[in-house]
Structures are given as structure tokens and as C-alpha cells.
Amino acid sequence: MGPSASALPGPYHPADPRAACIKREAMILGPTVPLQLLPFVLLDQFHTKLLGKKMTGKKFTPFPVLKTGRLTLRQLRRSDGQEILALRSNHHVNKYLDRQPSKSIDDARTFIHTINENVQSGDCIYWAITVNEADSVIGTVCLFNFSENSSKAEIGYELLPDFQGKGMMQEALSTVIHFGFQQVGLQAIKAHTRFENQRSVSVLEKLHFKRDSETNEALTLFELTHNDLMAERATDRQ
């Protein structure tokens, strides 16, 4: 988100924080980077500390397909390789992520395989974002780095530039947040973003995330608790 908010390249390896839910650093490109949001609402997807953590008693089988008015969030497929390559090699998407761009369809397919392995093992859940009228991947969103009791997680996301500025990431994140609180039983969701990435900051704030603390000079931590979200919705209804 990108999306990471703890960034969206997956529960990654210390040597490769960007590969969504990564177990084998040699399979994915790039140097270690902190979780960061991409140009719009985008997060590169994962956090080094997620490596080795499992969701307690949670298995995403069958995979939970989520639908909104305009979008379908589904599992990644090997046939999505070209779209994932386009996403992970896009200069604008990578702007706030210190990752090497993907260079080949094999890179993309290896990434997809690794993601789905980690979803199956309960390390994370990673959705491909598609538009309802089509089935092409335009972005991704992920919940990862679950706490030991599965009460907390991080969120990451990324979106192709042609689809930014249309409310699509906010729409996708809203349904993933609802799933996390209502189906997974999370009590809090965290996100990291670069301070200068104001479009990403704006989306998180629209979703009622609250600025927690400065992680460092460049990154800001946001958090949304289930209680805070319920309180905000109650206020909105008044």
C-alpha cells in the first residue's frame, strides 16, 4: 500500500521484507526495507517479525472471497503472473518502497507461489484486488504479522496508478477490516506509512485509523481498534 501500514510484500524475510508472506528470501527480489505505504494507499506488504509466526487456530480454508460494490478480492493465481509483474515493477507503486522491481514473469510466479504457501499455512491472508467487470489484478491487500493470540495484525496494500484516486483502495480496505474484526476476531489492526505519503495518510484517516507514534523520522504508525471503529460508527449514525 503497497499494502504493509505494515507494508504489503508479505511476512517477509529479514533479507527481503517485500515478498508477501515470504519464507525463502532467495525467491524474491530486493534489500531489506521497513514497512511502508505505496503512492496512494499502498503498502508493501509485510514485516520481518512476521516470519515464523502462525495464526493461532486460524486457517483460511476455503479461501474467503470478499466482494464490494465494485471489487472482488480473491486468492492469487499462477495465471496472475503478468499483472503481479506489472504491479511490482511499476515505478510509481515502488516509489515509497526501497525494493528492487520485479524483472521477470518467473519472479512474479515465484512470488505468487510463496504467498499462497503462506496463506495455506496460516501466516497471512493475501487478496488480489480485481474489478467486478473483469478479472485482472489491479492491486493487493494483506493481513499479516498476527499476534500470538491472533488479536492483532498488520495490514498492507498496493494499487496500480491508473486505479488510484477513485476510492477503490478505501473500498477494498474497508471490507478487509470488517473481515478482520468480524471473522478473524482481531481487536486491533496496525499500519505503517511514510510521513510524506499524504494520500496514504488520508485514506487511513478516512478509515478511522489513529496516528499512534513516529516509528522513526520517515515512518508513522497508525492503529485502528475494533472498539474505536464501533465508537466512530455510532457517532456517524447520530
Main attributes of the structure:
238 residues; alpha+beta; Aminopeptidase; 8-stranded mixed beta sheet; two-stranded antiparallel ribbon; 5 helices; disordered N terminus
Can you describe what's shown?
It is a single chain. This protein has 238 residues and is an alpha+beta fold. The chain has a single domain (25-237), classed as Aminopeptidase (3-Layer(aba) Sandwich), CATH 3.40.630.30. The chain has 5 helices and 10 strands; from the N terminus they run E-E-E-E-H-H-E-E-E-H-E-H-E-E-H. It has helices at residues 81-88, 105-121, 168-184, 198-206, 226-237, and strands at residues 37-38, 42-43, 66-67, 71-75, 125-131, 137-144, 152-159, 188-194, 210-214, 219-225. Strands 3-4-5-6-7-8-10-9 form an 8-stranded mixed beta sheet, with helices on both faces. The chain has a two-stranded antiparallel ribbon with strand order 1-2. Helix 1 (81-88) crosses helix 2. The longest helix has 17 residues, at 105-121. 48% of the residues are buried. Mean pLDDT is 78; it is low at 1-56.
Strand and helix map with partners:
Blueprint: E1 37-38, E2 42-43, E3 66-67, E4 71-75, H1 81-88, H2 105-121, E5 125-131, E6 137-144, E7 152-159, H3 168-184, E8 188-194, H4 198-206, E9 210-214, E10 219-225, H5 226-237
Parallel strand pairs: 7-8
Antiparallel strand pairs: 1-2, 3-4, 4-5, 5-6, 6-7, 8-10, 9-10
Helix pairs in contact: 1-2
